[in-house]
Amino acid sequence: MKKTVRVRYFAILREQRGLDEERIVTEAATAGALYEALRGRHPFSLPADRLRVAINGEFRTWETAVSDGDELVFMPPIAGG
Amino acid sequence: MGFMLTEKAIDAAALVEGLRDMRAGACVTFEGRVRAENGGRTVTALDYEAYGPLAEKEGEKVLSEAGRKFRITGAACVHRTGKLGLGDIAVWVGVTAGHRGAAFGACRYIIDEIKERLPIWKKEHYADGATEWINCAADGRPPGGRRRGKAG
């Protein structure tokens, strides 16, 4: 089933994608499947196991289902402080 | 009070003034500053980028946890975003408590958790013109090519 989601990019992923955010029409069932699909299209250097995912402003697991209208953020390894 | 992200220079004196509390016999503050060296390379500047809503939510959570784990009377934390120069304050933590043990303990807890958990990223600019997103090397190595270790 097709759904439209908003994906936001930060740091190294933003640079590798060349965009801050985009709307994507996807059939990916889970957050993990969506990242793999995007990684197939863009030169993302980091595998999913180095990232975390947030959906609608909350940390979620890669197995979390993607729903129409979701906002997803794939977060590179953090380095605050 | 509380957690805040800011694009402006951190005013440590104003922040510590905001923690004035007649119940507090101790006030411990920590400043994380931009250092001129990392992994053997000469650093000239840093860019910090944050996923704001989640960083703020997680930052508030860390402060609440510190309030439950330690007998403190107040706590605040501010983290910079944007471009920082050498010596600039990247993160500030302040804690007040009746006694120093809780203030030191909570301050340490807050800075350690902030560094581990908040979606904030750091890009280093080096003297040779190169740049690197810290912790984001595809092979997991830290800058300078040494084995992965605990960041400063």
Can you describe this structure?
The complex is a heterodimer of chains A (81) and B (152). Chain A is an alpha+beta fold. Chain A has one domain (3-75): Roll (Ubiquitin-like (UB roll)). Chain A contains 2 helices and 5 strands, in the order βαβαβββ. Chain A has helices spanning 11-17, 31-41, and strands at residues 3-8, 21-26, 52-55, 58-60, 71-75. In chain A, a hairpin with a 2-residue loop joins β3 and β4. The longest helix of chain A is centred in the middle third of the chain and has 11 residues, at 31-41. The N and C termini of chain A lie far apart (42 Å). By secondary structure, chain B is of the alpha+beta class. Chain B has one domain: Aldehyde Oxidoreductase, domain 3 (Alpha-Beta Complex). Chain B contains 3 helices and 9 strands, in the order βαβββαβββαββ. Chain B has helices at residues 12-17, 52-69, 100-117; strands at 2-6, 26-33, 37-38, 41-50, 72-80, 82-85, 89-97, 120-126, 131-133. In chain B, the strands form 2 sheets. In chain B, strands 3, 4, 6, 8 and 9 form a 5-stranded antiparallel beta sheet that branches. In chain B, α2 packs antiparallel against α3. The longest helix of chain B is centred in the middle third of the chain and has 18 residues, at 52-69. The radius of gyration of chain B is 16 Å and the shape is elongated. The two termini of chain B are 25 Å apart. Classes of the chains: A alpha+beta (81), B alpha+beta (152). The interface between A and B is medium-sized, with 22 and 30 residues.
